[in-house]
Amino acid sequence: MEMSKLSTFVVFMVLAIVHSSLAYNSPDEIVEAHNSARAQVGVPLPSLTWNDTLATLAHDYSSIRLADCELVHSDSPYGENLAMGYGDFLSVDAVNLWVGEKPNYDYASNSCKHDMCAHYTAVIWNNTLQVRCARLKCNNLDAWFVMCNYFPAGNVEGEKPY
């Protein structure tokens, strides 16, 4: 009987590890999602690259937000996008959510037409060269908190993103 419990536990742990590894985006996938959106509007090379130095900021601040999972920005000197999603909400899903604001951005007037578009312009900002994201499970909800930081920060008032 003890061996049966142990076997069940081992199978459960293997499934949990496989599930959590499938519900993850690699840095390359996250960078590619950003670079794809940037290429659509002609942002020239160099493309965004992954910045491990921003890792501590993204992870530490995301950890603070896990208690309430509120989308409250940090006071960091870096650019920042936040998102929350349910189910198997991945970091790339957050990037796609932000890129979904594209129809709200009017390049001619450098403003949002209707709703929010600053997440989108942060993704495509021409002078931004590095990105780092963190994705952590919320404590109070069955949801995921995603934070991406950008260096140098974009969304400079009065400047166009590209």
UniProtKB/TrEMBL annotation:
GO cellular component labels: extracellular space
Keywords for the protein's UniProt record, in alphabetical order: Pathogenesis-related protein, Plant defense, Signal
Keyword Phosphoprotein: no
Signal listed as a keyword: yes
Signal peptide coordinates: 1-23
InterPro entries: Allrgn_V5/Tpx1_CS, CAP_dom, CAP_sf, CRISP-related
Origin superkingdom: Eukaryota
Residue ranges of every copy of the SCP domain listed in the record: 25-158
Protein name: Pathogenesis-related protein 1B
